[in-house]
Amino acid sequence: MKNIYLLLLLLGLTVSGFSQTITITDNDSGEPLQFVVLISESPKAYATTNKNGQSDITDFKGSEKIDVTFLGYKKVAFTYSDIESRNFSIELEKTNLNIDEVVVSAARWQQSSSSIPLKVITISPAKVSMQNPQTTADLLGISGKVFIQKSQQGGGSPMIRGFATNRLLYSVDGVRMNTAIFRGGNIQNVISVDPFSLENAEVLFGPGSVIYGSDAIGGVMSFQTLTPQLSYSESTLISGKAVARYSSANNERTGHFDVNVGWGKWAFVTSVSSFDYDHLRQGSHGPDEYIKPYHIQRQSETDVVIYQNDQLLQIPTAYSQINMMQKVRFRPTEKFDFQYGFHYSETSPYGRYDRHNRIRNGLPRYAEWNYGPQIWMMNNFSVTHKGDNVLYDQSTLRLAQQAFEESRIDRSLNKSDRTTNTEKVKAYSANFDFVKTTGTKNTLYYGLEYVLNDVESTGEVEDISTTVVEDGPSRYPQATWQSMALYLNDQFKISDQFLLQAGIRYNQFKIDAEFDTRFYPFPFTEANMNKGALTGSIGGVFRPTEDWVISTNLATAFRAPNVDDMGKVFDSEPGAVVVPNPDLDAEYAYSADLGVAKIFGDIVKIDLSAYYTKLNNALVRRDFTLNGLDSIVYDGVMSKVQAIQNAAEANVYGIQAGIEVKLPEGFGLSSDFNYQKGEEELDDGTTSPSRHAAPAFGITKLTYATDLLRLELYAAYQAEYSYNDLAVSEQEKTEIYALDENGNPYSPSWYTLNFKGMYNVNNSLSFSAGIENLTDQRYRPYSSGASAPGRNFFLSLTQKF
């Protein structure tokens, strides 16, 4: 192996002149276009342009069709010979609308969106710079197609097609981010991803288990961070950006810097971001139940209730965060591409605001309920080889090591015992992916995957009056979770208009856990699980014309029980405690999708997706017994015993609809609307609305754009969920919902009006400013424990180089 790397290094130092460089520019201004995508099916090749609009297309030699796509420009196709006859120079023409504007990697391989039978969206850097989302959770929300729940300012839990948390899959640079302690309750891991470091973000709606395995039931969120860009000229390529931003609603102070340095074979990207958010101020017009006009301070060894001068300030919600990324790329020849990436993210401790709203005996229940620092670190090494053999045209070996840390700290009012639970997960993964084109119509995508999670969970109890610290019960057992899989996806082009795709995956999953019985009378000290899951999909894409596409897909998906399902102990609600259950099976989803998109006269684009998902053997929380007891004392309270069990079925169906209209003189109108309905079976055989099926929601925008200026006036909105619309588990949460005329919790409808603008002073300097929530509405997105920002002014400055 050592000799192989020495040989590759020698090749990198000695081989020259192998590349053929293309340059792509705007046909009006002549400016180079960055991030233009080129893709070919035969030979299998993929490339993007750098800052100078250049890319190496040696791999495309001999291709009879090279698709060239870029957001806002007409999609064109050339043969390699055509490009050669143009002296490897292409000009792109701006357009109003495209049916497929993107090439996606949400399916792990780079593919045109027109060849994927599921709905996929891309959130481009241009949209991010215009909208100025504060976190990656907010970035997903600006799409108008992903609903975001927040229990505190330092968070964001996406809901997609009636599913959330551990029934959605997160991927960063092709690496699975989900761990063995992803829970059914709301999770905040997506904020660990730096929105400034993203090259693009993609959301695949619907099942993705064939490629991604467990958890990919409702959708896949795929984040591609900045790829180190090589230089295709004699000079060194240096590019980057610096961003500074301020927001008034939470006194946000954000700074970011990234730089790319590239030569012919080596390239480096460095990215650093710092985020600082003060307590969040909510709006002045809305339900009074959302106002908590006090917070708790510790004074002279006593917890004191402090009433605030500004009752709209949500205390405690302040937090800060730092993100760092370093990537290295080495491309010694046109056949090999080595990339290494290091990612690090850490937040400050931050309060879980919804828990601070809980009342017991007329007083706040908690003096403290905080998350400790949320830490994520990843090392990711990949090797891509482009071959011409019987096994593959392209192969990618991806090795990753991740470390996660999170903790929960709580103390009841006027109690001296502070409980801290800390979880650390070390995650290791290996993926070996292959692409092989056979003939002119058939492409195979296949691979192997291995994932290992090592879970370390500890608990401690500190007497804050004496500072004595003792061991306490851990949240989880000490455990390992393993997953091993083989998968195959076959794409067959029946004709120029019709494409068929089918896939299959076999997954073996295993858990080994050791339980600490010092604090709870578990009837076991260890538990083991070793089971398998088989999933598949079949779908098709039909394009009768260039401006008309119909797609359909049938698929199964699964979620393997993880350590959180099998071994967790926690207080789910006052008077209830969840205990371990080692006797679990995987839950299965069966899904059907139908999508239609049509452009009318290069002026109007309409797209509509309908879906239905049935979840069998669902892992849900139900009443349970422990050593024959249906209740035990937990945290000093007699609590009903519950456990995660395969005890229910669930059904979710809905539509996603969008319309885009290009008006004269640079104006445009667009709207996205989402409706979903879900129900799940309860333990008594009755049904309840699904907890993660959000109310109808959407975004409608009026835009104006020129070369230098872009303006947006838009409304974001959510429909009402009455008391009867709420899941049974939500109907008891009076601390996070408004109250109707009968005193019952409900989620009111809401809307916000927003105005944003971005002005490009020149090719490198731009200003963004805006007013969000113009009418200062006080509202909470469904199921959220903290209110959204009130009227918010922001200003952002970006300098590119």
From TrEMBL:
<dbReference type="Pfam" id="PF07715">
    <property type="entry name" value="Plug"/>
</dbReference>
<dbReference type="InterPro" id="IPR012910">
    <property type="entry name" value="Plug_dom"/>
</dbReference>
<dbReference type="InterPro" id="IPR036942">
    <property type="entry name" value="Beta-barrel_TonB_sf"/>
</dbReference>
<dbReference type="InterPro" id="IPR010917">
    <property type="entry name" value="TonB_rcpt_CS"/>
</dbReference>
<feature type="signal peptide">
    <location>
        <begin position="1"/>
        <end position="21"/>
    </location>
</feature>
<dbReference type="GO" id="GO:0009279">
    <property type="term" value="C:cell outer membrane"/>
</dbReference>
<comment type="similarity">
    <text>Belongs to the TonB-dependent receptor family.</text>
</comment>
<feature type="domain" description="TonB-dependent receptor plug">
    <location>
        <begin position="115"/>
        <end position="220"/>
    </location>
</feature>
<dbReference type="InterPro" id="IPR000531">
    <property type="entry name" value="Beta-barrel_TonB"/>
</dbReference>
<keyword id="KW-0813">Transport</keyword>
<feature type="domain" description="TonB-dependent receptor-like beta-barrel">
    <location>
        <begin position="331"/>
        <end position="774"/>
    </location>
</feature>
<dbReference type="Pfam" id="PF00593">
    <property type="entry name" value="TonB_dep_Rec_b-barrel"/>
</dbReference>
<keyword id="KW-0998">Cell outer membrane</keyword>
<dbReference type="InterPro" id="IPR039426">
    <property type="entry name" value="TonB-dep_rcpt-like"/>
</dbReference>
<keyword id="KW-1134">Transmembrane beta strand</keyword>
<dbReference type="GO" id="GO:0044718">
    <property type="term" value="P:siderophore transmembrane transport"/>
</dbReference>
<keyword id="KW-0675">Receptor</keyword>
<keyword id="KW-0798">TonB box</keyword>
<keyword id="KW-0812">Transmembrane</keyword>
<keyword id="KW-0472">Membrane</keyword>
<keyword id="KW-0732">Signal</keyword>
<dbReference type="InterPro" id="IPR037066">
    <property type="entry name" value="Plug_dom_sf"/>
</dbReference>
<protein>
    <submittedName>
        <fullName>TonB-dependent receptor plug domain-containing protein</fullName>
    </submittedName>
</protein>
<dbReference type="Pfam" id="PF13715">
    <property type="entry name" value="CarbopepD_reg_2"/>
</dbReference>
<dbReference type="GO" id="GO:0015344">
    <property type="term" value="F:siderophore uptake transmembrane transporter activity"/>
</dbReference>
